[in-house]
Automatic annotation (TrEMBL):
Signal sequence annotation: 1-22
InterPro entries according to UniProt: Cu-oxidase-like_N (IPR011707), Cu-oxidase_2nd (IPR001117), Cu-oxidase_C (IPR011706), Cu-oxidase_fam (IPR045087), Cu_oxidase_CS (IPR033138), Cu_oxidase_Cu_BS (IPR002355), Cupredoxin (IPR008972)
Keyword Oxidoreductase among record annotations: yes
Keywords annotated in UniProt: Copper, Disulfide bond, Glycoprotein, Metal-binding, Oxidoreductase, Signal
GO molecular function: copper ion binding; oxidoreductase activity
Protein name (database record): Laccase 16
Alphabetized CDD domains for the sequence: CuRO_1_Tv-LCC_like, CuRO_3_Tv-LCC_like
Naturally occurring in which organism (per UniProt): Crucibulum laeve
Length: 530
């Protein structure tokens, strides 16, 4: 055996370090009720550390996140238990940390804490987090999560990428979500937000002239803006006056660089774009008009009045003097995107191992609104699906009750979902937990198995959208519309992926005693505290 010289051995270790060194990154989330006024209207909210959006999480791709959630909620007009979903993280072997209530965990009771332990396993990109209990995130529990990659293949395209280049877009409501939800579920239109916000700042009709959010740039630098739609309902059409945007990442997946003037971004989607600050020194409009059905139901809302300011260093401390409301010329079409690494849908153009048709629609029966998939309105089970798989040996579809609408997937199968139905005028952002998927057919696009876009939220309107993924990540994964009101009305299914492989073998679930305790504590709560 060849003996390495000591200096070469050291070099070899140093070379390997970036890919193997797991650093523990700790965050403390106090979930509190506090009054805030993102658009000038003060209301009680459900907040992470008192802020909206909540504390920004930043980590490197091989880190292990430890996020301690201390539930200090006490306001009876909003949900007092909580869970948090870390949107886009694959959670390999840690489905228990994924967050959706009654799919992977019981909620965290008020007065209790739970630490989410999440190894990132090399995953990087732009993510976010939000409550996944009922419609609680509407009340404020949402924020950005960024995982940096020191070996990012697009690293040479930008100079700045930090907390100041994260741009969140969010709808905002003046009233607590539970009351809005009750009215909606009685057969009415979706609750309409009162304002749209950029980085937590917005304006409503008749409200105060809140100083707009500002993004500072310096001439000659290139910025990686991480644009995140943390809305409960609304999409946005995002653009920046006088600048093109080069898309390099979509929902945590690197894509072939694609330059556009703007893009539509639906609830829960993310885009990283590079902006070159190469224009004359002044202020420019950042525009994000909202796109949502029935917006005229709420006269507080001006869908166009969602602006921030791109401020060049040296420009006056003021809003731009140019017209604000200008349309986008070269708008992104999703099907034009191509995944950068390992392009191609799983299984290529060969038939998938499993094809599932998902036909969704809306109905109102006896003043009760339902959104259904294949005629079934999803309803949460009493015990989390994950607990039933791990502790009660649930393995085949008949183990699950009908309203749980749970399909079992075989380990490593290529799964093709064909999503279609009656969109009812909406574009429904369908999100799959535990995976990114290839979009074999995007809304209005051609079929493409060779180099399609890959992401974890896809908009579905009136036409059939086809997505594919490989069932290589055991776990019960939620697939649902990310219009939170539609999810609450039942627009969801669960895929119980590889139950046997989740119980035993190299991809088996890591079970934490404190995760098991969550259900014992929660089930003992009076209904008002659940
Ligand atoms: Cu929907």
């Amino acid at each position: 055996m060849v003996q390495l010289q000591p200096q070469f051995a050291l070099l070899a270790i140093a070379f390997c370090l970036p890919s193997i060194l797991a650093v523990d990154v700790n965050y403390n989330f106090n979930i509190v009720n506090a009054n805030i006024a993102p658009d000038g209207f003060s209301r009680a909210a459900v907040l992470v550390n008192g802020a909206f959006p909540g504390t920004l999480i930043q980590a490197q791709k091989n880190d292990v996140l430890h996020i301690t959630v201390n539930n200090q909620l006490s306001n009876p007009t909003m949900r007092q238990s909580t869970t948090i979903h870390w949107h886009g993280l694959f959670q390999m072997r840690t489905a228990s940390e994924d967050g959706p209530a009654f799919v992977t965990q019981c909620p965290i009771a008020p007065g209790h804490s739970y630490t989410y332990d999440i190894p990132l396993n090399g995953q990087s990109g732009t993510f976010w987090y939000h409550s996944h209990l009922s419609s609680q995130y509407v009340d404020g529990l949402r924020g950005a999560l960024v995982v940096y990659d020191p070996t990012d293949p697009h690293l040479s395209l930008y100079d700045e990428d930090n907390a100041n280049t994260v741009i969140t877009l969010a709808d905002w409501y003046h009233n607590p979500a539970p009351g809005l939800e009750d009215v909606f579920l009685a057969g009415n239109d979706e609750p309409i937000p009162d304002s749209g916000t950029i980085n937590g700042i917005g304006r409503y009709v008749g409200g105060p002239t809140v100083v707009r959010a500002r993004i500072n740039v310096v001439t000659g630098k290139r910025y990686r803006f991480r644009v995140i739609n943390i809305s409960a309902y609304s999409g946005f059409r995002f653009s920046i006056e006088g600048h093109s945007l080069t898309i390099i990442e979509v929902d945590g997946i690197n894509h072939v660089a694609k330059t556009v003037d703007g893009f539509d971004i639906y609830a829960a989607q993310r885009y990283s774009v590079v902006l070159n600050a190469n224009q004359p020194v002044k202020n420019y409009w950042i525009r994000a008009p909202m796109e949502l059905q029935h917006s005229s139901d709420n006269h507080n809302l001006d869908t166009k009045n969602v602006y921030a300011v791109l401020h060049y260093s040296g420009a006056p401390d003021a809003e731009p003097t140019t017209p604000a409301d200008v349309g986008v010329q070269n708008l992104l079409q999703e099907y034009q995107l191509a995944a950068l690494e390992n392009p191609g849908a799983p299984g290529g153009s060969a038939p998938a191992d499993r094809v599932i048709d998902l036909d969704f629609g809306r109905s109102v029966i006896n003043n009760k609104l339902e959104w259904t998939i294949n005629g079934v309105q999803y309803q949460s089970p009493d015990l989390p699906t994950l607990l039933n798989i791990i502790a009660n040996n649930f393995t085949v579809e008949s183990d699950f009750s009908q309203p749980e609408h749970t399909s079992v997937l075989n380990f490593n199968d290529v799964v093709e979902l064909r999503i279609h139905g009656s969109a009812n005028g909406h574009i429904h952002p369908f999100h799959l937990h535990g995976h990114a998927f290839d979009i074999v057919q995007s809304m209005g696009g051609p079929v493409n198995y060779v180099n399609p876009p890959r992401r974890d939220v896809v908009g579905v309107g009136g036409s059939t959208v086809i997505i594919r993924f490989r069932a290589d990540n055991p776990g019960p994964w939620f697939l649902h519309c990310h219009i939170d009101w539609h999810l609450e009305a039942g627009l969801a299914v669960v895929f119980a992926e590889a139950p046997n492989e989740q119980r035993t073998g190299p991809k088996a679930e890591i079970i934490k005693p404190e995760w098991l305790d969550l259900c014992t504590i929660y089930k003992a709560l009076p209904p008002a505290l659940q």
